[in-house]
Each structure stands twice: as C-alpha cells, then as structure tokens.
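sanity check this record:
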Amino acid sequence: MKEDIQSKELKNVELEIIKQSPDAKVIALAGNPNVGKSTVFNNLTGMNQHTGNWPGKTVSNAQGYCSTEKHDYVMVDIPGTYSLMAHSAEEEVARNFICFGHPDLTVVVCDATCLERNLNLVLQTIEISSNVIVCVNLMDEAIRKNIHINLPLLSQKLGVPVISTVARQKKSLDRFLKCLDDTIDTKEHHEYISITYPRLLEKAIAMIQPILEERLQGQLNTRWLSLKLLEQDPSLLVEIDHHLGTDFLKQEELISAINIAQELLQKHNIDTATIKDQIVSSLVHVAEDICQDVVTYEDAAYNQKDRKIDHILTSRWTGYPIMLALLAIIFWLTMTGANYPSQVLSDILFYIQDRLTDLFMYFHAPAWLHGVLVLGIYRVLAWVVSVMLPPMAIFFPLFTLLEDVGYLPRIAYNLDKPFKCCCACGKQALTMCMGFGCNAAGVIGCRIIDSPRERLLAIITNNFVPCNGRFPTLIAIITMFFVGSAGIFSSVLSALFLTGLILLGIIMTFMVTKCLSKTLLKGVPSSFTLELPPYRKPQIGKIIIRSLFDRTLFVLGRAVCVAIPAGLIIWLMANIMIGDMSLLNHCAQFLDPFAKLLGLDGVILIAFILGLPANEIVVPIIIMAYLAQGTILDMSNLVELKALLVQNGWTWITAISTMLFSLMHWPCSTTLMTIKKETGSWKWSIVSFVVPTLIGLLVCFLFAQTAYFFV
C-alpha cells in the first residue's frame, strides 16, 4: 500500500526549537503514558506553550517555556512511549529527538507506584545519552500505598541525578527546577550504568564499536549504535542517512565489521528477532535487580484492590454489560442535563437575531442582505451553537472523567479481542470512543495506532459511531415515535434506545472492519502494549479545562467554520424560486422516488445532503422544507413537530429509516477534511465517504422493503 501515509512514517526532519532567548537550554521530557508527564509539562510551562506536529509525522508535539534565576528552559514534550525500540511513530519521534535533537538534558518521568516497569525506558534513554535526569513522579500515591523508594541509592545505581515530584504541587516542581540548574551547571562526570548483554552479543558489539568511535568522535553513543546496527532497525538507518549522511553506512570498513559480527551471531542461530529478545530480556533483568534494592513495600498486596476491580471491569461476563451501562448513563446525563441550557442558549442567540433584524431595519438594509446575513448565516450558526454546545459541555467532561480515572484502557482491553478477530488493532476501541464526541476528533485520535493499515481501518470506520451532532436528531425521533411522553422515565427510555442504536453502530464497525481487512486493506493484526494504569482520583478542575478547551471549543470552532457557508447555501436554495416552488423543494421532489425506496422521502434526503457541513442542521432543514419557509425554524415542541412530520407522510418506518441513515451515512465535511489532513490523500477521504454511504443506503433499502412487505 504505497500511499502518503506510509511515506510519512519514513520521513523525518529535525524539529525546529523555538527559543525565547539565545542561551535557553533545551530539555526533552520523556516518559511512559499515565506517569503524569503532561502534568509536569503543563504546570512548569503554564499557558506559555507552542504546539504543532513533529515534521514528517502525525504525532503532535508541544514546546513550553519556563525559567529560573540561572537559566531559561525550552521544555520539549516527547510523545509518551513505553520503549525506544521504535515499533511506532511515537517511539521513533522520542528516540530521534534524544539521539539527533541534541537536547541539553533528557528528563525521564516515572511513576513511583510502578518504578520497575518505567525503568525500562530509563535504561534505554541512558544508553543513548548520559545527560539524563530521572524524575520519580506521583510520590504521594506511592506514600499512600506504603511504597518506599531509596532515591539516593537509585541515583547511585543509575549514575544519573534522581528527583522526586508530586507534579500537582508547586513546591516539588521548584525542587525539580533546582535539580535542572544543578545538573546543567555541574561539570562532574558520572559513571552511568551500562547494560551487560549475553556474551556473544557483547563480542559482536566489540567488533563494531571501535570503528564507530573513530568515525563519530562523540556525536552518538557508539555502544548503543553498534547494538542498533546489529538489530538492523530500518527506521534508524533512515535517520542515520538523514543526520550523518548517506555515505556513513556505506563505508567498507564499517560494512565489513557489521557483516563479520552478524556472521558470528548467525553461526550460533542468533537472528535479529533473537537480538531484540536478548536486549529486552537484559533490560528487564537489570530493572528487576535495581528495584529489588531500592523499592520496598510495606504491603505486598498494595494493588490488590485495583486487581479485584479489574476482574469485574475486564471480565468476559461483566465487562461488556458494564460498558454498555456506563454508556447509557452518560447519554442519559447528557440528554437530561443539556435540555435546559440548550433552550436558554437558544433564547439568547435568537434574541440577538431579533436585535440584528431591528438594526437592519433601522438602516433600511435590503431584504436580501438581511436574509443572507441574519436569516441565513447567523440563524444556522445560532442553531448549531445552541444544539451542540450544551451536550458537548456535558459529554466531553464525562468522557474525560472516564479517561482520568483509568477506565478507557479497560475498554480497549475488553474490545481488543473482537478487533483482533477483525484483523485490526485493539487501540481502535479508544478512537471509536473519541468518535462519540466528534468523528473528526476520533480520526485525529487514530494517530495512536502504529500500523498504517490498521490506522486507515480505524479512520474509515470511525463514522459508524454517531457524533455529538447526530444525537439531537436521533433523540428527537426516538422521543417522538417510540418513547412518547413517558414522564420521568422518558429520558431513561430514550437513553436505552440510543444505546441500542449505538450498539448497532459498533457491530457495523466490526463487520466493515473485517470486510475491509479481507479486501481493500488486507493484513494481519499487530500486537501492542496496553497498560492498565492504576485507578486514580480524578482531577475535576483539570478535567473541566481539558474537556472545555481541548475538545469542546475545538470541535465547536470547526463546526462554526463550516456552518457559515452552509447557512448561505441553504438560505439561497430556500429563497430562489423556480415557478411556485423553491430550489430546495425542487431538489427534494427530484430525489423523492429514490428516497422512497430507502424508507425516506426527498426532503429528508436533501436535508442530509445539505447537512454535510454539520449534522446538527438536518432536522431544521426538514422542518423548513415541509413548511415551505425561507429560513431555518426552531421548533422545540416535539408534539407539534411530530404532528408536522406525520402530516407529511412520516410513519414508524420513516422514523427508523431516518435513524438508520443518520447512523450510517457520509461523514461531515469537517471529518472529511480531517481525514485528508491525517492521511495526506484524497483517495482515503473518498473511501471514507463512500463506504458508510453505500452501507447506509443498503441497510435502509433492505429494512424499508422488508417493512413494506409486512405492513
């Protein structure tokens, strides 16, 4: 599969460091996921940050700035990774920046409650560069679990400075900055730890290392590079060509030494896979030995409570029902909580519309100008904001809460096996969850999937889970035609119906993923490392800020950008008259025969087509077309709305067909543009448009024709 998305995986150029002062020191901040690295970075740099993408990669980067009395610092937030053995884009980025980015220091943030696992990354980092500080974070949790770490002894064994932090507490970060100053200013040479590998591997390293020392003269750690040349890491070879020149690896003496070393290993049946196993095994044994000496546990069963909870949440029999129950609860809270603020916001925005109308009348503006700007563009914007903002402001914090507590990795664990059966990656479960808030955000989230093939599978099928913009349409139809006025239980029943629809979307995700992996995107599923982090007390303030700024306003901003041209087009179509009908109604009439085959009508189909910029405007367009009005109307009374729909031929078949088509149809324009950006190819944007659309048409056709047969 020779696409741009693959070429992105192989190309990388040096990240541009943006310094606020010429003498600023560059600090690389590395660490496993879920160790509090982002908290360290955010609390050190505050809002003084610069974000973007690593050149040649779809992995995001962040640079932040902080200073002490002695130095200014540029903090470069390296992607969270478990290893530097370059199995993924994140690992490549981390390794390449430590090797070739020439940071003044690399800080590896560790979790004090599971230090042994984190030491794997520490040891690999020290192998690359001796300019390392180990930051043992989450010390408060370690104390709570009665875990004691001998930090001076750990520093002695590693040969690098070690500092403890509780990233949420400013005082511990002051100690961290002092450690940075002292390490930058000191001229002492530390005897850092050296990993001893099996005898034959050490002998092979010794054959290559002297040649590298002569050629590199301190540019890179020659022992580590000798090991990687034996391992024949293709991504590293590309980076060496880029940074050291294409002729470096073509030197005859170096090639001869590598060949002799490889022949020695092959003579004893040691291939590249065995070399990797020996490397990992050696790192694990060293980490175990260190932790046996420096870590003590007052209670050996300190994590027994977490394991008991995991036994319930990840069990084959209880894990899936709990997932669905939590999903239903989130939808119920979103629906019930969003109703009142949505109405208030709508009243405010439409009050502003009335004042804008008064202003246009005061200046005797032409009717067409008032129609385009106020009744067209502004009214669509008002509808999108009032419908989208309140549910997102509730849904995203709830979603972030599950993430912060540590439940989302358990969802990925539960769904890993079904995705493996579809020849896909279990991480797709996480990107699918992100799609509930916004499919564009779900597509961006697919960056966490290492394999380009599996990433494309996740991108193409992400649209089968309904985004926040489709919830209002689904909820309104469920309430009007299937729940009715069930009093206090109405919202509960709506949430259960909606959960059932989403379960159908998840099933379709599995089916389409399986089909694509056997046809267009053939391949075998890759394995991945999934950590089940400890359950943590959520940081409510952090959750609100992250969900509001990083997700809610980001998604809303994109929706607003596409709603502006949509409002203009919709108003023009509704007000350009051809004979006694508007262009909008002419288009609906033209599509009506085809739409009837799907259990819809022409108005519904044209509403979905015009709703390409934002799914939120589908129902208002339907209302506008049925009433033959020239502007979008706010018809929040569901009893009156149902009466209008029934008058225009809606039945339970129409309602179900509309919900099915809403669940399975083309992505919105924001999502399509995001797919183009993420894949670098219009081809996959078109495929992502065609696949759900064809399936939606087929499902609606089969349902409608079957239902017509029995009615």
